[in-house]
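Revision sheet: structure tokens.
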Amino acid sequence: MLAPGGVLTLLVVVLPFLVAVYISFLDLDQYTFRRWVHAPFTGIDNYVDAWRHSDLLHAVWVSGSAAVIATVVALPVGMAAALTTHNRFPGRAAVRSIYLIPYVLPAFVVGTVWRIILAPDGVANNLLHRLGLDTSGANGLWLNGPRSYWALIAVQIWASWPLIYLLVLAGLQSIDHSLHEAAALDGAGWWTKLRSIVVPHLRGPVALGLLITVLHIFNSFTLPFVLFGVPSPHDVEVLPVLTYVESFQNFRFGLSAAMAVVSLLLILIPLLVYLRAVRLDVGEDDR
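Predicted:
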């Protein structure tokens, strides 16, 4: 029964990954691409070149810091949205649907809309100008220069918080209603119930939401690609876009494959930590 899924995983995931690892050890460029199987073997030179002579470390820092900051800000937003729509009230279905708009929109659409909003003559600068803030010259540049980093974080927050909202809402709905009733009979207020009942039951969904959000933002390509174009400004040169540039603009396929492998290894670190924590938590519950 599992054989079709195993074969599909082998063809779609494992085999391309092994090919990418093999290419990362080759001197593969536009001159050797036609016969890439016979391209010169360079060992770890591509990894050394990526480490010393490229913007890999800067791209890792931009991707990682933006992912962490955006996730930390999106967490309370998503939790507050889940708490506001957990109990029944007139129009709750409509509010829940509105909350999901950033989540269901494709990243290409999100990037295009925010690119229009953050343009020098866009909605953001017009609104700031009406509030009396200076938006002339460099002060109005959101898609280039130092402000582009914070523009990337803001857009990622807007696009990411609904995922945390969904996971937290699912966690809230899984709490046994009898626990709330028992707490109310004991005279517990809303803060006590939130601290002693709700928060402990949300550890799993919140941890999963944080992990998925960080990994999704760290590995996001479409949104930065559409929002800032290629080549991206140095302040928002994230790792997926840098890998794309090295491969399809500079035609250094071996170097870009090495960057992709490094990106995968970096993604595996928090994933393995989470899986280890889940295993320990399950083991404690069994005992």
